[in-house]
Design a protein that fits this description.
heterodimer; A: mainly alpha; 1 helix; B: two-stranded antiparallel ribbon; 57% helix; disordered C terminus
Chain lengths: 25, 205
C-alpha cells in the first residue's frame, strides 16, 4: 500500500515557503 | 540615503521590537535594498520582486509565495516596506516563540482568512504544490491525501481546522513548522558577511 502523505507536510515543501531563497545571491 | 526610502524605519527601533540586533537590522537593510531594487528601484518590495527572489521566476504564479507576500504586506498596500520586512522576517528567527510561528503558518494556510483552514483550501494548496513541483497525481489520490489529513487534524469533526486544532496538530507533527525557522537569522552578520561589509561602509559615510 502506498504511504499516504500528510497534506500539510507536502505543502510545507513549497519553494514559495522557503524564505532562505530570499538570501541567495 | 536610507532616509529617502519610503517607510524606512530606524534600525534601533526595529531591533528593540524584534530578536535582531541593530547591526543585524542594518545587514537586513542591505538585503532589503537588493530585493527592493531588482525590478523597480523605489525602495519597496513589490510582489513580482518578492516572487522573483523566492522562486526565481517573476511570471509564474505561486500560491505560497503570494500568501507569504500578503502576510508580509501588513498595511495591505501592495508593497513591503523595510519595517514590514524586518518585523515579518523576525517570525522566522530561531528565538521567536513557537506559538508565533504556529500562528503565522495558520494564517498562511487560511487562504480566505475565515479563521479556519477549510477542506477546499487544503485541496487547493495540495494542487498548487503538485503544479509547482510538476507532479501529477490522480484526483482520487489528492482527495485521499486531503481526506486522511482532515480526519487526522479536524479533531472536532466539523469539516474545518480551527487554531486550536492546528496547534494540537503541529504539536504532533513538529516538522510542519520547520520552514518557519531560518537558522542563520540568528547570526546574519556571520552568514552574510557581504551585507555587513556594505552596512559598515554606510555607517562610516
Amino acid at each position: 500500500r502506498p504511504v499516504i502523505m500528510n497534506a500539510f507536510e507536502l505543502i510545507s515543501t513549497s519553494q514559495g515557503l522557503n524564505l532562505s531563497n530570499l538570501f541567495e545571491k | 540615503r536610507a532616509r529617502q526610502i519610503p517607510g524606512y524605519e530606524d534600525p534601533a527601533t526595529l531591533a528593540s521590537e524584534t530578536p535582531f540586533t541593530v547591526s543585524e537590522v542594518e545587514a537586513l537593510f542591505e538585503l532589503f535594498k537588493k530585493l527592493s531594487s531588482s525590478i523597480i528601484d523605489d525602495g519597496l518590495i513589490h510582489r513580482e520582486e518578492f516572487q522573483l527572489a523566492l522562486i526565481r521566476n517573476r511570471n509564474k504564479k505561486n500560491l505560497f509565495a503570494d500568501r507569504v507576500f500578503d502576510l508580509f504586506d501588513v498595511k495591505r498596500n501592495g508593497v513591503i516596506a523595510f519595517g514590514e520586512f524586518v518585523r515579518s522576517l523576525s517570525i522566522f528567527h530561531p528565538n521567536t516563540p513557537e506559538v508565533d510561528k504556529i500562528d503565522f503558518a495558520f494564517k498562511l494556510y487560511d487562504l480566505r482568512q475565515t479563521g479556519f483552514i477549510e477542506r477546499e483550501e487544503l485541496k487547493e494548496m495540495v494542487l498548487a504544490l503538485l503544479n509547482e513541483s510538476d507532479l501529477v497525481l490522480s484526483d482520487d489520490v489528492v482527495e485521499t491525501i486531503v481526506d486522511k489529513t482532515f480526519v487526522d487534524a479536524d479533531s472536532k469533526g466539523d469539516g474545518k481546522i480551527d487554531t486550536e486544532e492546528w496547534k494540537e496538530f503541529v504539536a504532533r507533527y513538529p516538522s510542519l513548522i520547520k520552514n518557519m525557522t531560518l537558522p542563520y537569522l540568528k547570526d546574519i552578520t556571520l552568514a552574510f558577511p557581504s551585507f555587513v561589509m556594505n552596512s559598515e561602509v554606510e555607517d562610516s559615510e
